[in-house]
Amino acid sequence: MLSSLVLRLQDPMIYTLYGFAIFFLVFWCALWIIHLLAIFYGKYRLHRKVKPLSTDEPYPGVSILKPLMGTDAHLVSNLETFFTMNYPMYEILFCVEDAKDPAIEVVNALLKKYPNVQAEVFIGGSNVGVNPKINNMNQAYEASSYDLILISDSGIRMKEDTLLDMVEHLTEKTGIVHQMPFTSDFRPGFAATLEKIYFGTAQSRMYLGADLLGVNCHTGMSTLMRKTVLEDQGGLKKFGCYLAEDFFIAKSFLDNGWKTAISSQPALQNSGICDVNSFQARLTRWAKLRVAMLPTVIILEPLSECMVIGACAAWAASLLFRWEPLVFYLIHILVWFLCDWMLLSIIQNGSLPFKRFDFIIGWLFRELSGPYLFLLALCHPEIKWRNRVFKLTWGGMAQEVKP
C-alpha cells in the first residue's frame, strides 16, 4: 500500500520529465528541418541572376541614404564602391551628425573624384526620436528625389551589379528587398574569421529559414524599400522611437500586405574595426533587442544553439529510447558542424579566405560563446550604442539614459 502511494506521487514527476523530453526532441527536429531548408534554399536563392525588368520601362531611380559617424581604415574603399555601381540612375545622400566629423573630408574627396555621380552631404540631422541612425538620416530622407530608398551602413561594400540585383528582386507586390548579412574577404585575422563563420552559419541559417517561411527577418544594414509605402506608415521618423527600426519598418510593410525578399547577393560587411570584443558586444546588443521585441526569445534562442539543444536532445533520447547520450551528442555536433561548413560554402560562393583548421577553431569558439553572450544580454539589458546608453521596454521601444 505504501509503495503504491509512492508510485502515485511519482507519476506527475515522470509525466513532466517525459513531457520535457518530447518537447526537446520535437524542437531538435524542427531545428534540423530549418538547417536543411537553409542549405537547400541558400543554394537555390543566392548568387543567381534574376529575370531583368521589362525593357519597355526604364529602371527606377534610387536614393541611397548613407549614415556616417567617424572613419576607419576601410571607409574610403567602402564608400567608393557606391560611386562605381552599374546602375542608370541613383543619388547618394551622405548623412553626418557632427559638422566636425572626419568622415566629411573623406566624402568631399570622393565627390571631387567622381563629379558625375549625383551626391550630397547632409550635416546635423534632425531630432525625431531616440534612434541616432534615424535622426541622422531623416533630413536626407525628406530631401530624397526618388521613390526607391536604399539604406546602407557605412561598413558595406557593393559590387557593380548589387543595386541592379536588388531592384530586380523588387517585384510588384514586394515592398522591401534586403541583403542577408555576410562579410567581405578583405580583412585578415581571427576576428574576421569569427565574423564570417557567424554570419555564414548561425545567422544565415535562421535568416534563410525565416525568409523561406515568410517570417520577418529584416536587417537594416543594406535594405531597399518603396518610399511611398514608408510614407503611408508615417515616414522614416515614425520609427525613431525604436532602436531596431529595421524590424518594425518591415513589420509595418508586412502588416499592410506587402512582401519582403532577400537579394541574391549577401551584404558584404567590411568595417575597419574588427576585433573579437567589438564583435561580441555587437552580438550582445542584438540579443538585447530581440529579447525586448520578442520575449519568447528568452527561451527559444538559447535552445537553438548547437551545444544546448544537442545536450537536451541527447538526454531526451536517453530517457525515451535508452540511447547512449554521449554518442548521440557527439554525432549531433559532428553533423551540425558539417552542415554549417556546407552552408558557409554556399554563401561564400567560392574559396574561403581561411583554412579548415581555422574554421574548426572559429566554429567551436562561436558555438561555445553563444549561450554565454545571450546570458550576458539578459543580465545587462541596457544597450550601449556609440557614446549613448538606452533602456528598452517590452515591445522594443527605447528610452535614452542620460548620464
Automatic annotation (TrEMBL):
Give the transmembrane region(s).
Answer: 20-41, 292-320, 326-347
* Keywords from the named record: Glycosyltransferase, Golgi apparatus, Lipid biosynthesis, Lipid metabolism, Membrane, Transferase, Transmembrane, Transmembrane helix
Specify the pathway. Answer: Sphingolipid metabolism; Lipid metabolism; sphingolipid metabolism
User: Could you confirm whether the keyword Oxidoreductase appears in this record?
Assistant: no
| Membrane found in the keyword field | yes
What is catalyzed by this enzyme? UDP-alpha-D-xylose + an N-acylsphing-4-enine = a beta-D-xylosyl-(1<->1')-N-acylsphing-4-enine + UDP + H(+); N-(9Z-octadecenoyl)-sphing-4-enine + UDP-alpha-D-xylose = beta-D-xylosyl-(1<->1')-N-(9Z-octadecenoyl)-sphing-4-enine + UDP + H(+)
Molecular function GO labels: ceramide glucosyltransferase activity
Localization, per the record, is: Golgi apparatus membrane
InterPro entries on file: Ceramide_glucosylTrfase, Nucleotide-diphossugar_trans
| One BP annotation, GO | glucosylceramide biosynthetic process
Q: What are its GO cellular component terms?
A: Golgi membrane
The topology of this chain with respect to the membrane is:
Multi-pass membrane protein
Give EC number(s), comma-separated.
2.4.1.80
Family listed: Belongs to the glycosyltransferase 2 family.
Tell me what this protein is called.
ceramide glucosyltransferase
Q: Which organism is it from?
A: Diabrotica balteata
